[in-house]
Design a protein that fits this description.
4-stranded mixed beta sheet, alpha+beta, 8 helices
């Protein structure tokens, strides 16, 4: 779908007009179904009772689809919501926060890490603050029906039932990705890594807005209320059990996407060199990750369980565990995060999972661990959205 951005309004309105033309045909289609069955005239496969019956089945399915897209919160309502959002987003997130954007622009321009990036206001994002310890800019992505994030007693943003996603602006530059298992005294040593997992390579990464938290159940309800699924009892729990056909279009419709594998690793490391951002060995994730451990009793997880109990037998609310220097929570464990391994124009992207999950031991939580994902929904798979910087 077209992303809900001001520059896409012509395409969004054209899509709405197309929907409305189809809806306008419902009465004529229903009238055809209400008529007495009359065999189509002629000879061959396109005539007779069988051909008429087949045509009626197609028309019936079309009427049912038209009815479905008109239901509350269904495609037509969602398209109108995206158009209304795109029509007003610059006023609500740029004009109404002009002084905050001026502050952000000046602070980013003066920050050597951003190499003189002149950040213009980004429609949809509301500046929050410059984090007092990480010294990175934080933003809220305004979504219909959502609420601004609030600070907790420790000065960090918390995620409630309908809280806007919180993004942090990360600098770009040359990034060394991957790991090696041969030389303990050299960068990116991981004794459990192997060459096919993530070979060392230097790659340029652009500045990027990255969600501090994994997308939650409540936030999924803001962007995709049409998707039928059983919500979790706690709305701030990381959303899971989505297939690729649900996840990717819903994110894109609201200006988000999943990161590439290189972008994800850059975010997850937070400037560190070790297999985990919190240390070199599996035990270092204790207190920093929800992994397969004594909390998941009965040996139902994958791999070797951790020796401790983190208090969560399955997926946990986001932000319960610590964050790295880039303000990324839960990059180890909780839910395995979907990333793009590769993509070619006109073809579906190749996706993989990174970071491990509550269902896997600490070894799978290593930063360079990965496994291809074919799009099947599982209770241990979710995502961390990113937003491209608009020049």
């Amino acid at each position: 779908p077209e992303s809900a951005r001001p520059e896409n309004l012509p395409a969004l309105r054209a899509r709405l007009a197309e929907f409305e033309r189809v809806v306008a045909e419902r009465g004529r289609l229903q009238a055809f179904l209400d008529r007495k069955l009359t065999p189509l005239a002629g000879s061959g496969w396109a005539a007779g009772v069988e051909a008429t019956t087949a045509l009626r089945e197609v028309v019936k399915a079309t009427v049912e689809r038209i009815d479905a897209i008109q239901r509350p919160c269904a495609e037509l309502a969602q398209l109108r919501s995206r158009i209304a959002w795109a029509e007003n987003v610059e006023q609500q997130t740029v004009a109404m926060h002009a002084s905050a954007w001026q502050r952000v622009r000046a602070e980013v321009l003066a920050d050597d890490r951003f190499d003189k990036l002149d950040l213009r206001p980004q429609p949809g994002l509301i500046p929050l603050r410059r984090h007092p310890k990480a010294f990175l800019q934080e933003f809220a992505l305004q979504l219909p029906g959502g609420q601004m994030p609030q600070l907790d007693a420790n000065g960090n943003y918390t995620i409630g039932a309908n809280t806007f996603p919180v993004f942090v602006l990360l600098p770009g530059g040359t990034f060394l990705s991957g790991s090696q298992n041969q030389h303990p005294d050299q960068p990116r040593y991981d004794p459990l890594g192997f060459v096919a997992e993530s070979p060392l390579q230097s790659i340029e990464v652009p500045p990027l807005f990255v969600s501090e938290f994994e997308l939650t159940d409540g936030q999924w309800g803001l962007i995709a209320p049409t998707v039928s699924r059983q919500p979790r009892p706690i709305a701030s729990t990381a959303v899971a059990e989505l297939d690729r056909r649900q996840m990717l279009p819903a994110l894109y419709a609201w200006g988000m996407r999943v990161p590439t594998c290189i972008e994800w690793e850059h975010c997850a490391r937070g400037g560190t060199e070790t297999p985990y951002w919190c240390g070199a060995v599996a035990a270092s994730v204790r207190g920093h990750a929800n992994v397969y451990d004594a909390a998941l009793r009965g040996g139902r997880g994958e791999g070797i369980p951790a020796a401790w109990d983190d208090g969560f037998p399955t997926v946990a609310p986001v932000g319960v565990f610590g964050h790295n220097a880039f303000m990324m929570y839960d990059v180890h464990g909780n839910i395995a995060e979907v990333v793009v391994r590769s993509s070619r124009e006109g073809q579906p992207p190749v996706l993989e999972l990174r970071g491990g999950s509550w269902h896997q031991g600490p070894e799978a939580a290593r930063i360079t661990w990965k496994i291809e994902w074919h799009g099947q929904p599982l209770p241990s798979i979710g995502c961390r959205p990113v937003i491209d910087v608009v020049p």
